[in-house]
Amino acid sequence: MSLRPPRRTVVVVVIAAVLGIGAGVWFAGHDERPATAPPPPRPAVVAAQPGDPMPAITLPDLQGKPQDLASFHGRPLLINVWASWCGPCVEEMPALTAFADAQGATGVQVLGLALDTPEGVRDFLTRVPVAYPIVLDTPGPADASVRLGNAQGLLPYSVLIDAQGRIVKQKLGPFAAGEIEAWATP
């Protein structure tokens, strides 16, 4: 008795194998899924530098009302970018508050720009009250701090704008004790 398969079975197996390999090669080169275009490139954010005009920025305050930062024009403006979860930001907040309180109606204005949630900021302000205005933004590669020159995206970050709306100084990191008054002189 012979254990060899009939010749006809061998031919059928070989033809099936050749057809299977051919179909695999054809399908690999003919993907039926619709082609998707790559996402469009993100517009590059131009980080402002000293001497540049302050970029046009409108952000919501804690009540959700849009605040155009150009409305602070006419007096120097210190913008302090912070977040409730940022330890160095929290540490410098009392000094910023004292500086803002000492400025009166004609001195340097102080604006807090929180890269945080409204809930996080409200909770923080119940523990550490701040009298100067605060606006909110969502952290990201094109947030207001980046447009104001914070290319590294680190906090805290402060920017001094002169009365004409031009960026005078930029500072990455917290203020040292007693540093704000000298730094904020335009």
Automatic annotation (TrEMBL):
<dbReference type="InterPro" id="IPR050553">
    <property type="entry name" value="Thioredoxin_ResA/DsbE_sf"/>
</dbReference>
<dbReference type="Pfam" id="PF08534">
    <property type="entry name" value="Redoxin"/>
</dbReference>
<keyword id="KW-0472">Membrane</keyword>
<keyword id="KW-0812">Transmembrane</keyword>
<dbReference type="InterPro" id="IPR036249">
    <property type="entry name" value="Thioredoxin-like_sf"/>
</dbReference>
<keyword id="KW-0201">Cytochrome c-type biogenesis</keyword>
<protein>
    <submittedName>
        <fullName>TlpA disulfide reductase family protein</fullName>
    </submittedName>
</protein>
<keyword id="KW-0676">Redox-active center</keyword>
<dbReference type="InterPro" id="IPR013740">
    <property type="entry name" value="Redoxin"/>
</dbReference>
<feature type="transmembrane region" description="Helical">
    <location>
        <begin position="9"/>
        <end position="29"/>
    </location>
</feature>
<dbReference type="InterPro" id="IPR017937">
    <property type="entry name" value="Thioredoxin_CS"/>
</dbReference>
<keyword id="KW-1133">Transmembrane helix</keyword>
<dbReference type="InterPro" id="IPR013766">
    <property type="entry name" value="Thioredoxin_domain"/>
</dbReference>
<feature type="domain" description="Thioredoxin">
    <location>
        <begin position="48"/>
        <end position="186"/>
    </location>
</feature>
